[in-house]
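To whoever picks this up:

The parser on our side crashed when reading a file containing two proteins. I've narrowed it down to the boundary between the first structure block and the second sequence. Both blocks are reproduced below exactly, byte for byte. First block:
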Amino acid sequence: MPLSMIGEGETATITRIGGKEETRRFLENLGFVVGAIVTVISKTGGNIVNIKESRVAIGSDMASKIMV
């Protein structure tokens, strides 16, 4: 299921990154790689997530390309 479907406070492991090569590279540079553990902090106005001990804000369109 896409990261955009995970609720606040939930933790999941990334299984696949979709989208164009440019999008996948962008997300990889932010730390979104297969096997990484991500926790949703907030869904207000997008998605704020904890990944690799950093908080990252991504839009719902980007979150829908990250499968957990």
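<<boundary where parser fails>>
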Amino acid sequence: MPRDARVFVLITGGAGFLGSHVVRSVLKDDRYNDYSVLVVDDLSGGFVTNLPDDSRLEFVEASIVNAAEMDALFEQFEIRYVFHLAAYAAEGLSHFIRRFNYQNNLIGSVNLINAAVRSDVAHFVFTSSIAVYGSGQVPMKEETVPAPEDPYGISKLAVELDLAAAHEMFGQPYTVFRPHNVYGEFQNIGDRYRNVVGIFMNNIISEKPLPVFGDGTQQRAFSYVADLMHPIVSAPFVPEAACEVFNVGASQPVSVRELAEVTCREFDVNPDLDFLPARNEVHKAWSDHSKCDSVFGPAEETPLEEGIHRMAEWVRAEGPRESQSFGEIEIEKGLPPSWHG
């Protein structure tokens, strides 16, 4: 196949939730006017309908786990920047799908890093997670020594370390962002294993109770997706961001029960909570964003009620999605009963 003459920004996982917002932000950003956008997604959790209709956009259905396919893409397209968002981000489930987790979140990432180094990519932007920190370290700060407690966080930290090694060995420029508990339009509300805001909204419009693990006092800072876009898409153009790691997201923690109450108020329903056995998870998780603010400017922080309203408007228009079971459970021992079948 002849090499495409255009110069591209590659966005992996671009048909997914966070990736589709990065796609839109790049296409709207004047700094990328001379570039086309190449979206690579295996559609395991994303949807082609999440992508905008734009003449500068090319979509390829492929998996980052397939090294040969990734190498072929870098040969066919001249790729200047990489935004790597493809991942299976079910943190709690990762204990029970360890091989799948490392293949998709670590080996797939290494395939991209290899191709980026060989192709002299100008900048590699990676979305990691505050899962790298583990528990008992709030507010989480970049200088905190990582201590991930689940395979998902371990895989994300390993990719961060591999990027640092690729820079040290080959000079590959990169930036790492650690987002957390992101919600908003284009989220896969039919995924029962992750994205609690989406699960709550999907169950409300399906007239089902809201599943809450444990007593619901777990605290998270829920981040509206649009608030993350400025630093992420700006990273290749900000010298101070080169080879740095940034927390990005909301700063105000709320409990899962409070989140349920806010979501139910938006839909004008009384909370109907289904309390399930507690999972083995970090109880309190939110981070400090002063480093990100100092480099990219003070971040927007959409109030939870406003972000929930915007997402709910989209959910009402889209309607419910059927929850799909994960078909490749590797360890059944300790799997929450609600995740069976």
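After patching the parser it read the second block fine. The chain has a mean pLDDT of 94. The longest strand covers residues 78-84.
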